[in-house]
């Protein structure tokens, strides 16, 4: 479980200093218990790590063909930076013992005095390194969300520099407020697996990045949004399914324990919300577009998953369906709304991870049951299930604090990158495609250049883009 009575953290830490030799016996935690818990969390972390493949497929499917290879490079560098920065400083800032705002101990994952330096993790009867692995892949997911909205026009160095600050400082600070025993947790803020901490943070940074970047060339003409379709719907939906599978580690694994917790209950709620999200997005697509938009159906599944991530351990199954359906049904209209605001978001990250993340976090204040909140020792029952408006208020100002801090910090970082090394590629490079301009190779070489033996002798002439990247008679797809 991620959320326990952290109001008692100072007392608990003091007791642990006195009773470390007898701690396992006092809590009846055996080596076998620790092994079982660690195996569950380790397998959950592997599923969450595999979500990077989901992001890769979803993003490459919704990007231009000429940028497919660049998406893969971006995914790889982001994962590597996430692990290195979270190991060096992020884990300490998020979970190290410090104050109510930020951790200040355990740098470079130093666990020589775990009871003192990482007192907030006392509830987790798992191997310390496994806990780090699990939290690090969560950080990597939040970062992956950021750059989905910035596809097809961002310099590679921009990804690198922002990733360092986001995974090392921005994400960990907000994580500390709740999961590290900080001020929001002490106020009873409920976010079991990260609708706000992971997904909303990623969307807020994505919004800051897209505002600084500006839209892709040709996205808005004569004041109207022009669709720029991704090149592969099958890859996009494959990405959705991989992410859905990864969520089976994301939410159930967030107990950080197997013994004594019903993680299968959380898995059921997660799947119900995803299914309801698809139905909701199908309805929303019919209302908004008068057709069954497959990409929006996929986004509906993700919106349902994002929305249920915060309340999944606090709610009954019927509430998961309601939460997922509402998240899905609003996505198509929100995608149109983002376009009307002249914000270019190729993958729908802002509605799916941002608005759905806010909705899911607030939903705790509406649907959290008294018995579940008591069992988790966090917060109170929601407004619609016998509680008052108190929990909803806590959820509201928790979201507001996340929005204020993460968006402001991200905006400042992106502006600093823009006015130093530059954030956006040149117009010529954007037209040519990031594969060739940033990486000197193509994700789909046979689509753009002659490859000996790849085509019959009677094949059409080379479809390589012109030096300026403009459309040619044989290759109109190279135009943006």
What is the fold's blueprint, element by element?
Blueprint: H1 9-19, H2 23-26, H3 31-62, H4 68-95, H5 114-117, H6 128-148, H7 156-178, H8 183-186, H9 195-213, E1 220-221, E2 224-225, H10 233-250, H11 263-289, H12 294-309, H13 317-340, H14 349-367, H15 370-376, H16 390-418, H17 427-432, H18 434-439, H19 445-448
General description of the model:
The radius of gyration is 23 Å and the shape is globular. Helix 3 (31-62) packs antiparallel against helix 4, helix 3 (31-62) runs antiparallel to helix 10 (233-250) and helix 6 runs parallel beside helix 9. Helix content is 63%, strand content 1%. Mean pLDDT is 89; it is low at 1-26 and 458-480. The longest helix is centred in the first third of the chain and has 32 residues, at 31-62. It has a two-stranded antiparallel sheet with strand order 1-2. The protein has two domains: 39-214 and 226-418, Ammonium transporter AmtB like domains (Ammonium transporter fold, Orthogonal Bundle), CATH 1.10.3430.10; 427-478, no CATH class. The protein is built from 19 helices and two strands. The protein has helices at residues 9-19, 23-26, 31-62, 68-95, 114-117, 128-148, 156-178, 183-186, 195-213, 233-250, 263-289, 294-309, 317-340, 349-367, 370-376, 390-418, 427-432, 434-439, 445-448; strands at 220-221, 224-225. With 480 residues, it is an all-alpha fold. The chain starts with 8 loop residues before the first helix and ends in a 32-residue tail after the last helix.
